[in-house]
Design brief:
The complex is a heterodimer of chains A (329) and B (182). With 329 residues, chain A is an alpha/beta fold. Chain A is 38% helix and 16% strand. Chain B has one domain: 3-Layer(aba) Sandwich (Rossmann fold). Chain B starts with 7 loop residues before the first strand and ends with a helix. The chains are: A alpha/beta (329), B alpha/beta (182).
Chain lengths: 329, 182
């Protein structure tokens, strides 16, 4: 059966969290095949504010977001996806169109508040925070998330939080229900008072990276230019941030050569949305700097290839042997 | 004789930094180690240490192997470093941050493996990050002084995923260097 209503209602957004690249590609392919066969249209996004999140139950971030959803009931629907059949409410690998259709229709009925899809006209958390951190007269930013709060001190690159660091805290921060309060030089005494009450240190890189990746909604920060060349000043600590293959690849490239966002898209083959999230995360962490355009023609070449190393693609063989390259959450 | 096409990966670092543990995390076979009683307790208090080298391997899908070599941590064995560096695709350098001279130790190894460092074929894993005074930024500053921009991550090599993070990063580094050098 085909439904005409798909062109009238706003599309529901769907994000994948912790899934293997191949599973993600398969899901997107099936979604394309199901176009027009569901009551509502769907679009794939790469942030965790999506209406529906298809997740790997083994992903710690997914577990944290799920627990947060259980507490806040903000209307996001989570669909587990794994090798073991999670039941009618979930997806079993390999993916089948019929089960996916059932799950998405069920999820659509649960999305009672579509406000998450009307946020596009406003600045997202990444943009709001970046704007504050770029304002020279601001000495710190207070973050209020539900009952907890924290302070970002850009001068000392320090984040103090009211509770111990864990995935839950990061999940709360990347949610859209965050209030930001700028503190100016006149608020110095207030800042000291607030900092005195906050005991837990959060990683600057890991927290801002999560905000950049998780809340960019695919948009490049307004202070960044798709035609400007950038380079990275150093590697962020992925030991704290976590292993995300696409971020590792982009970081390796941008520490070796300055590139524009468009060139990075062409070099990696990643979506513009993913690259924008990556660059925003770098910018938030203070790692991105403008650079002169690269003089060689390397960036004009096609996608980076592993086939040249040892004249036989040994890098790809190592990746296959150790299942590297599929970590994307 | 090792076939030319079989890649070789090195693990280096001072005594007790976790080289044997890291190799064990990704080797198909239990690593072959040449452990002996540690008589150099001034450097590290562990009972046994690697005096020759560790060896492990990972089977690749074309029948070849990724050969994993752990270099002895004591400086009196540093003559082996140059021998094993020949033909190596890259180096995972493990640093024990609980040592007072942790950042200086990194410099010692980067001096020894400068040719790999200059071709971006080195990644640095810092263990016991919370047990020492140095921060990751201190390592980055030391690298900057050398004109290097290498990845430095806080890791726990007992976690396989952390070892894979180092290895995957190294592969991306090699790939990027080769790409921009073409």
């Amino acid at each position: 059966m085909f439904y005409a209503s798909t062109t009238q209602a706003p599309a529901l957004s769907l994000a994948c969290l912790g899934l293997d690249d191949r599973v993600e590609a398969s899901l997107k392919s099936l979604l394309g095949l199901l176009k027009g066969k569901m009551h509502l249209a769907w679009k794939c996004v790469e942030n965790f504010d999506a209406d529906v999140i298809v997740y790997n139950p083994g992903s710690l971030l997914a577990q944290a977001l799920l627990r947060r959803e259980e507490k806040s009931a903000s209307g996001h629907v989570f669909i587990p996806c794994s090798d073991e059949d999670p039941g009618q409410e979930g997806l079993c690998l390999p993916l089948r169109a019929e089960r996916l259709l059932h799950c998405l229709e069920a999820a659509a009925s649960k999305v009672v508040n579509p406000s998450a899809t009307t946020f596009s006209g406003q600045a997202n958390l990444c943009e709001r925070l970046d704007a504050l951190l770029q304002t020279k007269t601001i000495i710190a930013v207070e973050i209020l998330v539900g009952q907890s709060s924290g302070i970002l001190n850009p001068t000392r690159k320090m984040i103090l939080w009211s509770q111990a660091i864990d995935a839950d805290a990061v999940a709360q921060i990347v949610s859209s229900e965050v209030s930001l309060r700028p503190l100016y030089i006149a608020d110095l005494n207030a800042l000291r008072g607030i900092e005195h009450k906050l005991a837990e240190h959060l990683s600057w890189d890991a927290t801002l990276w999560a905000i950049g990746i998780g809340t960019s909604r695919g948009r490049l920060l307004s202070r960044l230019d798709a035609d400007q060349s950038y380079r990275l000043t150093r590697w962020p600590d992925f030991g704290l941030i976590g292993r995300r293959s696409s971020d590792l690849k982009c970081t390796a490239l941008l520490t070796h050569k300055s590139m524009t966002p468009r060139e990075l898209v062409a070099a990696t083959g990643f979506s513009e949305s993913r690259i924008n999230g990556f660059l925003n995360a770098c910018a938030l962490c203070g790692l991105l700097e403008q650079a002169q355009p690269a003089s060689s023609t390397a960036t004009a070449r096609a996608k980076i290839s592993s086939e040249g190393f040892f004249s036989g693609g040994v890098l790809q063989r190592i990746r296959r042997a150790l299942a590297l390259g599929s970590h994307n959450a | 004789m090792i076939p030319e096409r079989e890649p070789k990966l090195l693990f280096a670092g001072p005594m007790g930094a976790g080289k044997t543990t890291a190799i064990r995390a990704i080797s198909d076979l239990p690593p072959v180690s040449t452990e002996a009683a540690n008589i150099d307790v001034a450097q590290h208090s562990k009972a046994e240490t690697t005096v020759g080298m560790d060896y492990g391997e990972t089977q690749l899908d074309d029948g070849s192997r990724l050969r994993l070599y752990g270099l002895p941590g004591q400086s009196r064995f540093d003559f082996m470093w140059k021998i094993l560096t020949q033909g190596a695709m890259g180096l995972i350098l493990l640093i024990d941050n609980s040592r007072e001279d942790a950042v200086q130790q990194m410099d010692v190894y980067l001096d020894a493996f400068e040719s790999l460092a200059r071709t971006s074929s080195v990644v640095i894993g810092v263990g016991r990050l919370n047990e020492g005074s140095a921060q990751i930024s201190d390592y980055n500053t030391a690298l900057e002084k050398r004109g290097l921009q290498l990845p430095v991550f806080g890791v726990d090599v007992r976690q396989r995923n952390d070892v894979l993070l180092l290895l995957e990063t190294l592969l991306h580094q090699i790939e990027a260097f080769e790409w921009v050098s073409q």
